[in-house]
Every structure is written in structure tokens, then in C-alpha cells.
Amino acid sequence: MLKSPRTALAACVSLVAVALGLPMLLGRGPVRADRFDESLIDDLNREKPEILLIGDSMLYTRLHLDGLRKLAADRRLSEYSVGGSASATWYLYFKNVAMAAKRPPQMVVFFFRDDVWSQPHLRTAGARRDHLLELSPDLTTDLGVVPGFADDSLTLAGLPRRLYPVVDFRNYLRQRLVLLIQDAVSGTGSKHPLVKERRERFDLGNLRSDLPAELPEANEHTEGDLQFDPDGTFLPEIMSLAADKGVRVVLYRVKRRPDDAGQREESPELAAYVASLRSWLETRGGVLVDESGDSSLGLNLYLDGDHLRESARPAWTVAFWRRLEPVVKGGPPR
Amino acid sequence: MIFHSLEYVIFLVVVFGLYWSMGLRAQNLLLLAASWFFYGYAHPAYLSLLIGISLSDYHWARQIVRRPERRRLYVTLSLVLDFGALAVFKYFGFFAENVATVLAALGLDPGPVTLQILLPVGISFYVFQSSAYVIDTYRGQVKPAGSFFDYALFVSFFPQLVAGPIERAAHLLAALQAPRVFRPDRFREGFLLLLWGYFLKLVVADNTAVICNRHFSIEQTEFPLLWSGVFAFGVQIYADFWAYTAIARGTARLLGLELVRNFEHPYLARSPGEFWRRWHQSLSTWFRDYVYIPLGGSRAGAAAEYRNLFVTFLLSGLWHGASWNFLIWGAYHGILVAGQRWLERRGVMAVRPVNGWTSAGRWAATFVLIHVGWLFFREQNVAYLGKWLCLNPLAVSSGLVWQSGLQDVLTTAFYAAPLWLAATAERWWNQSGREAMAARSEIGRFAWQAAAATALFLLILLLGSEVSADFIYFQF
């Protein structure tokens, strides 16, 4: 033990300072890599979609892509869906990937629930932020198009990330670990079949019905502030970019989980919100398609939360195309 | 309040600063106020239950000493109140639900018998700690506390209140009544222990929880997938519980107090009995001293010993939770430990392994048996439990499924590696490390501690899971 109490105390303080202070120096400056994933643009340049579908699990737990491709035989289709994503992800993909493609799609369809557009901060923190970094070369500027939007690094929750930028490498390390182990497990063969097997096995469609879904994207979405203020959303920027490139924007509102009779109660406030959104969109050349009043989408089609069963997807896709086809042909939705 | 939250860090810094600027009486009052604040932070209503149990047991213990001729009555009253509270808050819903099921099966209308009560966090831990104090007083093993505030602090000491270790009055109450001095070397050890606890929780437990939850959330699974999920759970629950204990012990050490250890590398055990001597030691010894030995232990012959072991483990399972899977888990371990004793009595199994090969074989068999038990523990739906036990390793749909299971086993093993490293490091420490470190200069020791602390914190930053759940043992 140190003889002088003052020295001993200084050693305690130094220990805490060194342990918590040194990691602050890591990951700053040039070491912090640009995370924007340009391969997404390459993918789109290769696929050259005429119609691009963007959304969260509402999209991929509904759509039967091969079925839709058959229905829209003469049109190229692509989809970009990320479970648990929200409007910030969709906007960044639209702006930095879809609009940056050599030949942008002619039509972009965004899948959404209720008032999600008015919650631009939704799912932009924590691990979600790592994903947003892959969709934007300059995240702060991109998200700053919504007045008052604070990058999470400026909030209390984002304080650790601000103090310790090395945290931004977490996702990268995790992905490297997964790839390393998949390579080891796959041996000399390709790891793609393994990736496919896991994707299908752990698909939301295979979730147990007796458990409350533990995945964040399966959680019930809650209504936010039911006032449609376009300036508080990414929509003006989306419409402006779309107008510049001659892209038609469609917002597709999905029907949320109905009651036993197949109905979904809708508050007058929410109905007014959707009407305001529709009106605003249509004056800017956009289209809102709303399936929430479709009584044929009964409870038996739903698995957990607002997700559909895998067996319901082909029929849903047919109904979806029936609604969308007139819009694709330039008319109003059916 | 939970340990891995910003609130707790701020709370601890404030308590620590005030604590070391006070005298003993004020220190204890501060700790009591802090503990009650800590407990009531989320659900203030349940604070009254904690205070009520403290008051009741404090009173009955004093009565036992004041009127020894009626001590049997007093200890009975105390235990009825303690375990009555536990029964109402923890088990009534389970009991009512099963009675209703039986009545409905008999064609009778059960009526509205279910009582929906939110389980008070940590009730099983503090009821056990407090009741042990009354029993020890009854047995004349401890003197009753002179001050209610000291006793209330013993029951509600915040580092170990919610998930143990379950302390004995002879140790913690005595320590709380003795003066404490700030020792820088203990502070440094406490700080390292805290970081180790956070590392275990945020890196090991939370990352393996993601793997485990994924496997237990799907409808269609297969043998390799299910068991890779069980392996992940085995690592998760150990790291999660050890993390809680390490943070509790680290916090206590910062405050100049020492808590019991609770774990001693249980996955190195070479028999089920040894596992229980290494796992959750404060609970195992509680059941040994207050259930198994009073039942007769091994004194009344082989058959009685097997029965006593079985009953003890069955109750231990019930302690973990009011559901059938915990009862099955307890019964399973009762059978394992009683079975081990049976084999030992018959000479089929040596009390200690005779050579390296038998040692390795027994370690492997114990590891597998313990993990089979974790399946009972993790799967709360008994119907699914039956389904999982019927999965056939020879009926796996494709080689990809084995690859997928192996991927999760390797990922879990990656996160579990520090647990094995810690066991190796501890062996080195006990054999030669302690002397080697003592022989170093103070600067050298400081450099080692600083390097270890920085590395732990950096690993938390780099490998910590973005999704962090409550500690598993909070639910008990």
C-alpha cells in the first residue's frame, strides 16, 4: 500500500481517469472511416428498377416479390426493406441511393403506418444510427433538413458516442465477426446458402405465436402527435428531389392489425391526419394509397403485431398490385 | 434502478462522495436512505413491503431474545409473515391459475380467482435474507440488531438488495455495525470489479442473449439450432448473474464493505453436486442450512437423504419462479444430485475422479446435464418444452442447419472466452500471481490495474450489445 494517503488517493483518481479517459482518444480524426455504402448504388445501377419499393417489416412481411414481378411482367421491380427502420432510413436511401443511381426509378413506393412520417427521430439512435451512417456520406447535414432535428450525438443518450467515437466501430466489428465465423463454418463452399437458410429460419413469419415478439420491428407502433406538419418530416425534401428527377412518389399506407371482425378502429384525429397528408401530397404530384379500410384483410392473415403470415403474402401481393396498377399507368389508385 | 443505467452511475458517484465524508452513524443512515431510494425508484409502493418485512423481523428477533420461553412461537410468526408475503406476491397467481384449470377440467366454474399482482423486484432475495436472520437468532447464532436502522440497512443494502448475494447477519450486519476506513487499494479493486461486472453484462450476457432469444422465438426449429440456443443461454445466465454479483461486490467494496462471492467457475464442475457448490453459493448454502439439514440431511439413512435432496431442489426450483418449468428444473436437479449420491454410495462413481480421463469425461457429462437443465429453465411454455425434447438429431433437414447451429455455437464461444480466461487467470492468481504482484513496485501494480481497467472499458465500448435487457435474476 502507498505510504502517503495523498499519493494513494491520487492513484485511485488516476486509475479511473486513465481507464475512462484513454478510450476517448481512439476513433477520432482520420481513423474514423467513411461508412457510406456505395455498393447500394451499384446494386441499383445493375437492377435498373422502374418501380422501387421502400419500407420496413411492413413491406417484407407482406410482399411476395416473385409474385409481384409476374404480375408486373413488363416492369423491373426492386425493393429495399429494413426491419425496424423508419422515415429517416427511407429518406436517406431515397436521396443518397435511389436518386444517385444512373437511371433513377420512375416510381418510388414508400410503405408506412399511420403517422410515422411525423416522427423523423424514430429509430435513428443506437444501432440504427450505425445503419444510417451506411446510407449517408454526411449524416448530420442530411438529417438536418428537418428543422430542429438533432443528431443523436447531441442528445444525452448520444453522449457516450460523442465522448467515445470508437463506439462507431462496434457494428463493423460485429459484422466482421459474423463473416469470419460464417467463412469458417462454410468451409470451402459459398456462405450464401447459409445466409439464406438463416434469413428464412429467423424470418418474422417463423415467430412463435405464444410469445410477445421480442424483435423491435414486431412491436406495436404507437401514434405520435397527430398533427400533420410537413415541415416536421422528410417529405418536402423527398418531393423536391423527386420533382427534380421526374420520379413519381407513392405513399402506401398499410392496414394495421384489425379486430376479430376484421375492422380497425380509427380515431377522428388520425383520419384527419391522413386526409391532411393526402391533400398535401397530391398538390405536389404525389399519390397516397390507403389499404386500411379494406375489410378483406382479416385477422386470420396476421401473424404478430401488424405483420402478415407468410401464407397470406401471395394474396396480399395480388391485392396490392390491383391498387397500384392504375397509378403505374398514370391514373388514380383503385 | 438498474445497475447498467446512467442513473445508477450518477447515484453511485453522489452516494460515494457523501459517504466517505461522514461518520459511521451518518454513513449507515445515508446508505439506508440511498437503498430505499434505489428500491423505490421504479415502484415506490413496494417500498412499504420491504420496510414492513424489516420491521416485522427486527421485532420478532428481539422478542425471541427477550422472551426465550416463547421463541418457537415468535420464530413461527415471523416465518409465516415472511413467507406469507412471498406466497401472496409471488405464488398466488400461479396457484389460482392452476386451481382454476383443475376446476374447469372437472366442469366447475372457477370464477374470478386470479389476482394480478406485479411481482416486487428482489422479494425472494430479501425475504430469504431477513428470515435467515430470525432463524439464526432463534438458534442463538447471532445477536439481534440493536438498532432498527442498522437492521433495515442489512435487509435493504442496495448493492445486493435486488439479486443477492443473500447475506447472513453474522457477516453483513456485523460489518455494517463496525467502523469503516477508506482504503485506496480496496477502492482500486472495487473499481476493477465493477468494470468486470459491466463487461460481463454488456458484452457477454447481452450478446449471447440476442442469440438465445432468436432461437427461443421461432416456431420451427431443429436439433442443432435449439441446442445452440440452449448453449447461448447457459453462457448468458452465468455471465448475467455473475455480472450482477460482481457489480454488487464492486460497489460494496467502494463503500468499504465486502459481500460473499456467490460463484466459483461453476462450468468447471465435474458433478452436479459440485456444480451446486460453485453456482449461486449464497442460495445453495441457504437451502442447505435452512431446508436440507432441518429435514434431516444425510443423517437418517440413504433413502431419507435422497428424499431430502429432492425436496430441497424442488423448493429451490420453486424459489426461482412460480411456473411449472422451474418446478421441473428443480426436480431435475434433485434427481441428478440424488442420483449422484446413489452412484457414490454404490461405489459406481468415485467421490473424486481418479485420473485425467475420468475427470474430463465427468466434466463433459456434467456440462451437458447442466445445459439440459437450462432448457427447462429457459422454456416457460411446457407444451413447447415437450416438443423441444422430442427433436431428433438424426432428422435434421439439411447440412445447412448444422452449419447454422455451429455458427451460433462459435459466436457464443467467442463471447464466452473471457469466462474461461477468468478461471485460468484466477488459478494463476491463487498459485503464484498474488505473490508476483505483491513483489512488484507500487507503480508496477498501478500499471497492471490501469491496463486491465482500460482494456475492459475499451472492450465494453467496442463489443457491447446495443440492446440490453434487465438482469435475468431480477424476475425472481
Descriptive report:
The complex is a heterodimer of chains A (334) and B (476). Chain A is of the alpha/beta class and 334 residues long. Chain A has helices spanning 5-21, 39-47, 57-60, 65-71, 87-98, 127-134, 139-143, 159-163, 170-186, 192-201, 235-245, 268-282, 313-328, and strands at residues 51-55, 77-81, 107-112, 248-253, 287-290. A 5-stranded parallel sheet of chain A has the order 2-1-3-4-5, with helices on both faces. Chain A starts with a helix and ends in a 6-residue tail after the last helix. The model of chain A is unreliable at 213-221 (pLDDT under 50). Among the domains of chain B are: 6-180, no CATH class; 190-269 and 399-476, no CATH class. Chain B is built from 18 helices and no strands. Classes of the chains: A alpha/beta (334), B mainly alpha (476). At the A-B interface, helix 1, helix 9 and helix 10 of A face helix 9, helix 17 and helix 18 of B.
Reading the helices and strands of chain A in chain order gives HHEHHEHEHHHHHHEHEH
SS class of chain A? alpha/beta
User: Main beta sheet of chain B: strand number and arrangement?
Assistant: none
Oligomerization category of the chains in this entry: heterodimer
* CATH architectural arrangement of chain A: 3-Layer(aba) Sandwich
**What is the CATH topology assignment of chain A?**
Rossmann fold
Q: What radius of gyration of chain B results from the CA coordinates?
A: 24 Å
| Helical residues, percent of chain A | 40-55%
Mean pLDDT of chain B: 91
Q: How far do the termini of chain B sit from each other?
A: 16 Å
Large-scale geometry of chain A: globular
Strand order of the largest sheet of chain A: 2-1-3-4-5
Largest sheet of chain A: 5 strands, parallel
> Cα-atom Rg of chain A, whole angstroms?
23 Å
Count of alpha and pi helical runs of chain B = 18
Q: In CATH's first tier, which class of chain A applies?
A: Alpha Beta
Largest interface: A-B, 50 and 44 residues
The number of domains of chain A is 1
Q: How would you describe the shape of chain B?
A: globular
